[in-house]
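REQUEST ID: PR-0412
SUBMITTED BY: lab tech R.K.
PRIORITY: routine
TASK: structure prediction, single protein chain
INPUT:
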Amino acid sequence: MSRTNIVVLGSSNTDMVIKASHLPVPGETVLGGQFFMVPGGKGANQAVAAARAGAQVSFIAKVGNDIFGQQAITHYQQEGIQVDTIFQDLENPSGIALISVDAQGENCILVAPGSNAALLPQEVLAVQNVICEAAVLLIQLEIPIATIEEASTIAVQHNTKIILNTAPAQPLPDSILNRIDILILNTSEAQYYTEVMVENWETARLAADAISQKCPGTIIITMGAKGSLIKEENNYFQVPAEKVNAVDSTAAGDTFCGVLASAIARSIPVIDAVRLASKAAAISVTRLGAQTSIPYWREYSTVSN
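STATUS: complete
OUTPUT:
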């Protein structure tokens, strides 16, 4: 399997997870939970997923000058991720996420972004050479929009494909959207940007049509257990989800994005890339944790390149 070149621009967190029978409602205390602490953050999760899919990954991120930041960098090195582009924040702590997971695998997440919110455009400029040389730039929305805009400008200038995962959903300027080669949204994010409630394939097509008015690239709407809808130019494709018994969906979306980016960087067609990403995401939901649940290429691949 050939190596590829992907730059992930995004967040690095430490996830503090409690697995319990059900998610608490406001004012409720739920006893009997199981606690564990694992590396997380959407950017980091996607970088790990891409690396485990065989990609050569550089990660542009920012961590605090604390034990969480030091542990994160060591972990990324162990995953084979290039860490020369990770900045250290001397003022803000590393990002932390508090995650509750119920018996059905549903979760709720509270994030203190810390150093992630201080990843600045000038820092991206300082390491722009890695974007210039990459096949794919993979981005999420847990870092400042101005930083994303700077990175996307560099990518366009050097013909680097841009994949944007709109998580967590927030307003995006047209100047970013019209640069995106592949836009990945889940159903709630699709509704946020289009006001279309995505409940089935038909409504997913309506949402894809609506968002393509501002984003001319390929649109992928992930629909959990239903699968994924792809809009590529004027063509639509449906990719069913794998049937599994879910225990924790925390990293499903990030696994999907990282594996998809790796496949696209290796020139695998979009529909086949989505099939691979769907298989990997399905495996991830059968395991606890974020990065601890992300599978390796050998576990889901049906093609090699």
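NOTES: The longest strand covers residues 56-64.
REVIEWED BY: pending
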